[in-house]
Amino acid sequence: MGDEVRYERRGALAMVTMNRPRYRNAQNSAMTYALDAAFTRAVDDDEVRVIVLAAAGDHFSAGHDIGTPERDADTEFPRRATMWWDHTGKEGADRRYAREIEVYLGMCRRWREIPKPAIAMVQGACIAGGLMLAWVCDLIVASEDAFFADPVLRMGIPGVEYFAHPWALGPRMAREVLFTGDRFGARRAYEIGMVNRVVPRDELESTVVGLAERMAAMPAFGLALAKRAINQCEDLMGMRAGMDAVFGLHHVAHAHNAEVTGNSLAGLDPAAMKKASS
Ligand code: ZN
Q1: Cα–Cα distance for residue pair 208/18, rounded to 1 Å
Q2: Does residue 95 belong to any structural domain of this protein?
Q3: pTM across the whole model
Q4: Is 169 exposed, middle or buried (CB count within 10 Å of its CB: 0-12, 13-18, 19+)?
Q5: Is residue 137 part of a domain?
Q6: CA–CA distance, 106 with 100 (Å, rounded to integer)
Q7: 79 CA distance to ligand 1 middle (Å)
Q8: Ligand 1 center to residue 202 CA distance, Å?
Q9: Entry's InterPro entries (predicted)?
Q10: From the CA of 137, how far away is ligand 1's center (Å)?
Q11: Distance between CA 89 and CA 112 in Å, rounded?
Q12: Is beta strand 139-143 parallel, antiparallel or unpaired with respect to 147-149?
C-alpha cells in the first residue's frame, strides 16, 4: 500500500484515510488500489467490525484525478473488480470503457459489497467522484462545512460513473443536482436523506466513532446479512440495472466529446470546472 491511503485499527474500527490532502484527495488509480488493499485488510481482520472512510485535510474528495502531476490514467494496475481486459494499449472507447468499468464502476460496486458496515466521514468538498466514495458507504456523517456536487454535465456527461443519484438523492433532487451542477450543503443533504448526521467539524470524528462503536457491538454475521439485505433491496428497486444502463450513456457522452472536441472530457480541466462552478 502506498502513502495515498493510511490504515489504522482502533479496537473494532478500521480507519481508512485518503491521504492526498494537497490535491483535495483527488482519486488517482494508485489511491484506488490503495483503498482496495485497505478495505481487503479490514475485511480479513476478524477484530474489525466497522470501517470508517475518512479523508486527510480540509476536504473529503475533489473527485477523480483529472489533472494533478500524479495522474496515472495510463498506468496498468492489477485488475480486481472485473475480468475485463486492461485498458493500456487500447484506443478510443475500448480504452475508456475498459478503464472505467474497472476503476470506477467495478471498484465502487466491489466496495459497496464489503461485508462489514462502512461509514463515510465527510468534511469540506465531496465532488463528483467523491460522491461515489461516500455513496458506497452505508452511513454518511458530514460536518456542517461539507458540500456536495456532481457538475460533470458541464462536460456534457450525464453524471459520474457510479450512477446512484436517483437512489441517493431521490429523482427530483437528482435532476436539480445534475441539471444545474450546483453545490448543495450538508444541511440540504440531511434534509433529503443523503446523510445520516450533520455535526460541527470538531464533533465529526467523535460522532462517527460513537456510531461505529454502537454498530461494532452487534453480531458480525448479522451486520453482514443486514447490509446485504439493504443492498439486495436497493438493487430490486432498480439500482444495479439502472446503473448498467446509465454507464452506457456515460460512455456515449465520453465518445461524443472525443469525436467532436478531441477530448473525452470536452477539454475541461479542473481549473475550468472550478471556474464554471464559482
Ligand atoms: Zn467517465
Answers
A1: 16
A2: yes
A3: 0.96
A4: buried
A5: yes
A6: 8
A7: 17
A8: 35
A9: ClpP/crotonase-like_dom_sf (IPR029045), Enoyl-CoA_hydra/iso (IPR001753)
A10: 21
A11: 30
A12: unpaired
Cα 157 to ligand 1 centroid, rounded to whole Å: 8
Which residue has 455513496 as its cell numbers?
135
Residue 250 CA to ligand 1 center (angstroms) comes to 6
- pLDDT in 10s for each residue of the chain, 278 residues: 569 999 999 999 999 999 999 999 999 999 999 999 999 999 999 999 999 999 999 999 999 999 999 999 888 888 899 999 999 999 999 999 999 999 999 999 999 999 999 999 999 999 999 999 999 999 999 999 999 999 999 999 999 999 999 999 999 999 999 999 999 999 999 999 999 999 999 999 999 999 999 999 999 999 999 999 999 999 999 999 999 999 999 999 999 999 999 999 999 988 888 887 76
| CA-based radius of gyration for the chain | 18
Q: What distance in angstroms lies between residue 129's CA and the mean position of ligand 1's atoms?
A: 9
For the chain, what is the domain count?
Answer: 1
Strands (E), 45-137: 50-55, 118-122, 125-127
Tell me if 214 is assigned to some domain: no
CA of 120 to the centre of ligand 1 (A): 23
Within-domain flag for 89: yes
Does residue 151 contact residue 264 with C-beta atoms inside 8 Å?
Answer: no
**What is the per-residue burial (b if ≥16 Cβ within 10 Å, else e) of 137-150?**
bbbbbbbebbbbbb
Distance CA 32, CA 80 (A): 11
C-alpha cell at 107: 471498484
Q: What is the CATH number of the domain that holds 104?
A: 3.90.226.10
Pair 39, 115: CB distance under 8 Å = no
Q: What is the grid cell recorded at 261?
A: 472536441
Query: Residue 70: which domain range?
Result: 5-204+219-277
Q: Could you tell me if 128 and 177 are in contact, meaning their C-beta atoms sit under 8 angstroms apart? A: no
The contacts of residue 89 (CB under 8 Å, 6+ apart) are none
